[in-house]
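Field guide to reading this record: the first block holds the primary sequence, the second block holds the structure written as discrete tokens, and the final block holds curator observations. Each block starts with its own label. This record concerns Peroxidase, catalogued under organism Thlaspi arvense.

BLOCK 1 — SEQUENCE
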Amino acid sequence: MKLAVVSVVVLLVIFVSWPVSAYQKDSPGGGGYGGDEEHDTNLWFPLDNLLSLSYYDKICPDFEKIVDTKVREWTKTDPSLGPALLRLLFHDCGVTGCDASVLLDHEGSERRSPASKTLRGFELIDDIKAELEKSCRGLVSCADILVAASRDATYQLKGPYWPNAYGRRDSKTSYARDVEKVPSGRRDVTALLETFQSYGLNILDLVVLSGAHTIGKANCGTIQSRLYNFNGTSESDPSINPELADYLRRKCRWASETVDLDVKTPVTFDNQYYINLKNHEGVLTTDQELLKDPRTAPLVDAFATQPSHMFRQQFAVSMAKLVNVGVITGEDRIGEIRKVCSKSNSKH
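BLOCK 2 — STRUCTURE
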């Protein structure tokens, strides 16, 4: 137990003292998208994938502006698209890497998998791509669009801003069977941690990126087993706060219904998610497991008790790592820049 406490203290020192200056410098109006010098970006991620913060500065200078404008237009009409874009990005990066494979729409693709049926935001990405093709024809990948749009949507929800390096290529292939790699709402912490480690992410990244559940909704079909017949008992999961369990049972009579992942502040990007976990108000099994596991529980407690901006700053750092997972670059012959995000160029 002493070791766990010491580890949390060390981690708190890291995420309190290290990301703050980088976050302030790289936020809009804080000195540019990546700072003035290349070495500043190393505080966020090693640029070992031939990605660059200035990739589109000359070849498509309006890239960031077009993405931001389109995201604002769409989310103004449908605010739920913000969390949906972030989820779409997680499902893309969590399968074969951040390569836009989730956007391909054909028989047997990730997008056609039953596990992807509730994903949304495809039309927004298509609209951004069509607009960019008018001014930057054949230059901007769908993978970069998804990364940028998800970041902008998060920021518009009062979440953190992080600098993105660009230059990704799009995957030419997509297989529904690969969707099994995406963490489900019923996996335990060990399985989740193994998945994150395979991405090159650590236990801190696991806990902080789970905090994305401070916004968005869950499909009732993913939690009904906790509510109506937990482990064959005909009762609810005893780890759920009884009042919350009663509320969820009334809301989730149909699997197709949805409920907020953060039952207290569902449209605010804050640390309430972690406070909810401490009150046994985690909606997904994987959420509540973070409080049960001795490896992650101290981090949950730290994020629940620290000011909310600490969580947002660390979320930015972990996201900057996530969007570098498994990228395809110009040196890789297996990638392309799609003309249409839902189709590979060979089938267009």
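BLOCK 3 — OBSERVATIONS
Residues 2-17 form the longest helix (16 residues).
The chain has two domains: 31-182+319-339, 189-317.
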